[in-house]
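Researcher: Can you fold this with calcium ion in place?
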Amino acid sequence: AKARGGASCHFFSEQMNERLQRRMGLEAALRNAIATGELELHYQPQVSVTDGRVVGAEALLRWRHDGRFIPPDHFIPVAEETGMIHAIGDWVLDTAIAQAARWRATYASPPRLAINLSPRQFWHSGLARGIIQRLQNHDLPPECIELEITESVLIQPEGPAIGELRVLRQHGLHLALDDFGTGYSSLSYLRNLPVNRLKIDKSFIFPLAGSSTDNPEDAAAIVRAIIAMAHSLSLSVVAEGVETAAHLHTLQNMGCDLYQGYLLSPALPAGQFADRFLEPN
Ligand code: C2E
Ligand code: CA
Ligand code: CA
Ligand code: CA
């Protein structure tokens, strides 16, 4: 038994060692990603449920490393733990706001551009000031930009996130609460958050129809309740993860405002997004 334990212990530590090395490799590569131009933003359309018009776009970060894309769910947590999220977040803001300004100069009715913010970005003071400064540099009206935050900004130990959010909102930027329903006590936080919009997480949309083993009636009851509550608070609702016509049909019946999902399109490079979804002036 002892030999076996020793062997499995050895095996385990080798596995940990491998994980650690992979993680350190990832970290080192990520440190260079901005300088080497390996980061890109792709854009996913946000569509009106009632008339199918593309009224928004969400900027989603892509890291092309060694010829393949590393998903944001893999590297953003690393960026957050190491503090690199500040440099990456600044790059995202610079790139997205410049893109929104180009769209506004070139296309007839450019979509509002939604940008994801990590809760960590609020740990540095001056986030709101920096964003407003960028808008002024590009002469971009604040309502052209929506910021997506998660309710975890409120349980962050540091930084007056709520004050920064109020400044941004008062300045005219739009704010959306992302991943709604997946976090903590959403309802009590909601009253204090100066947001315009809720995004229903895709984990609530998938079971509405199709392959899931969950009861679609229960899923529908939850989504319907979220939409009713949002509307009674004068918030609009975006559903993400709309993959099928059945999902969309259900959301139509529920009075959902906007959707995003593979049914229409995944996130695309800026050029492809413009070719497919934007009308020249
Ligand atoms: P999120 O903000 O909740 O973004 C929605 C995710 O759902 C995106 O994954 C999007 O590509 C994916 N998605 C959209 N429609 C569908 C669909 O119909 N089916 C399925 N299965 N998925 C769909 P992505 O791009 O891999 O991003 C993952 C997460 O990484 C995002 O979740 C967000 O939390 C984070 N992220 C992405 N870009 C940024 C960024 O610029 N800054 C920060 N801080 N986080 C980002
Ligand atoms: Ca988002
Ligand atoms: Ca989500
Ligand atoms: Ca998320």
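Model: Folded with calcium ion in place. The longest helix spans residues 2-33.
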